[in-house]
Amino acid sequence: xxxxxxxxxxxxxxxxxxxxxxxxxxxxxxxxxxxxxxxxxxxxxxxxxxxxxxxxxxxxxxxxxxxxxxxxxxxxxxxxxxxxxxxxxxxxxxxxxxxxxxxxxxxxxxxxxxxxxxxxxxxxxxxxxxxxxxxxxxxxxxxxxxxxxxxxxxxxxxxxxxxxxxxxxxxxxxxxxxxxxxxxxxxxxxxxxxxxxxxxxxxxxxxxxxxxxxxxxxxxxxxxxxxxxxxxxxxxxxxxxxxxxxxxxxxxxxxxxxxxxxxxxxxxxxxxxxxxxxxxxxxxxxxxxxxxxxxxxxxxxxxxxxxxxxxxxxxxxxxxxxxxxxxxxxxxxxxx
Amino acid sequence: xxxxxxxxxxxxxxxxxxxxxxxxxxxxxxxxxxxxxxxxxxxxxxxxxxxxxxxxxxxxxxxxxxxxxxxxxxxxxxxxxxxxxxxxxxxxxxxxxxxxxxxxxxxxxxxxxxxxxxxxxxxxxxxxxxxxxxxxxxxxxxxxxxxxxxxxxxxxxxxxxxxxxxxxxxxxxxxxxxxxxxxxxxxxxxxxxxxxxxxxxxxxxxxxxxxxxxxxxxxxxxxxxxxxxxxxxxxxxxxxxxxxxxxxxxxxxxxxxxxxxxxxxxxxxxxxxxxxxxxxx
Lengths: 336, 281
What we know:
The structure holds two protein chains of two kinds.
Chain A: H1 11-15, E1 20-31, E2 38-49, E3 53-57, H2 64-72, E4 78-86, E5 89-90, H3 96-102, E6 107-110, H4 124-133, H5 139-152, H6 158-161, H7 171-183, E7 189-193, H8 201-218, E8 221-226, H9 229-233, E9 238-243, E10 246-252, H10 253-258, H11 263-270, H12 310-314, E11 320-321, E12 327-328, H13 331-334
Parallel strand pairs in A: 3-8, 3-9, 6-7, 7-8
Antiparallel strand pairs in A: 1-2, 1-4, 4-5, 9-10, 10-12, 11-12
Chain B: H1 2-13, H2 17-39, H3 71-106, H4 109-124, H5 127-138, H6 142-169, H7 172-178, H8 184-192, H9 198-221, H10 232-239, H11 247-275
């Protein structure tokens, strides 16, 4: 950006309003036959700027992974509606061929399970280079760039390991290879769906640090899908909390952790064990999230909410922008 | 190219002495099949009534048949017919089976249903009888036998492979390749098919020996290779009536079939171990 900042202008304000890259507007995801369809994601809207790191947090069944898959149009069994604008084009309107051309080159994606995300019969080098090879880049050039990315991800002795097979790698190393596959095409956006869940805590940390480093160096936007508030704190600029198919709260990470607004977010944060506090028993949120087919009327969270009132079970709360710079879907704030 | 040579040496060094022996035997069998007919003396196609049904001796290592022809040379000459015809049949119907399985896996649901019902029909018919019918219509010859077996052999391959490919499609590396922008065709050919072939490699071992026997069976019935062809199956059926006085005339081609079948079974075993990178050590 060539924008010149005047003295006294709020620099932070400029930093936090990056050029939009991905704009999701009223995305709905339905599954099942048309006459008996179930809405699993309900009017999800959010924006992701260039180089921005945003976390989408929620319990299993909240619809976060389905949302991630919808952005890549991976699941042919669901019906998508709304708009997903990526760099000027609505992804939901693209042909299958156009979508395939975008995958890997503009939008990368990694999944939870590094054990099975790699083809067991293909060498690491061939797999990392594949994105480039299918786009007509020569063998030597593709190999060289694969090596570069593996180096960038700090895979030791990368040259020798190009000829190795996935089973010769540890879990953490495999996840780095999976990341390398997603990053070798130099995408603008990386969707990371629980990228570290299958790894042990220390390896998790290493992988996230690497991702953090690369995202900063390359200006790569990252959408981190996770259920783990613990890994969000150190990584994301902004956090969106998803519950039962809706985004219930969004704010800058620091704000959200300091002053969570939605009772659900509060519950989640209280349930994270902390080193600086001693408690006999970690607080938890009572009950379990509802199945998409039997979600309650009104606010989906009201049966588990300790601050629910009559209106919560009757009306779906709208989105309210908070003075703290975020938005929240809760009747506690909507009235004011 | 020294790099190429080094790679070749590294590849060979991965195999044990036993595995290399099996390779050598298979290669030898192929060599015999390739050059045998060129080396064999012309006398194996003509009768020599002075030397009929001679037991194995220094002159005739495996004895002679009812026409006085040297059985050892006839086996060498017939290797091409038996071995290559068998391989051709298995290759042809495997190709058909792979095509059907791939179409059933990627195609729409109705295509899957249609192809699998056709396979079921194919499976429910006795293969030998249908092959017999096809070969009869095409006229009795070895080519007819090959075509008939290729057309009747594929349904089992298609069914087995289609099931395995469906399972492979569920694995997350398939989704992983999709998010890299890999096309549907490449996904099937480079990822799904190679990761589904293990079941077939095992099946091929049995298929080769089974097909060799069926081809011999067709010759025996009279719709496959015709006498005086030295096709092994035809040799067995030709010598059948003399078993009690000249056991070697049946045993020698029988043993040739057994040696081939066992060699292929062992080869399939080795290939399977070496195809799976995690079984190599």
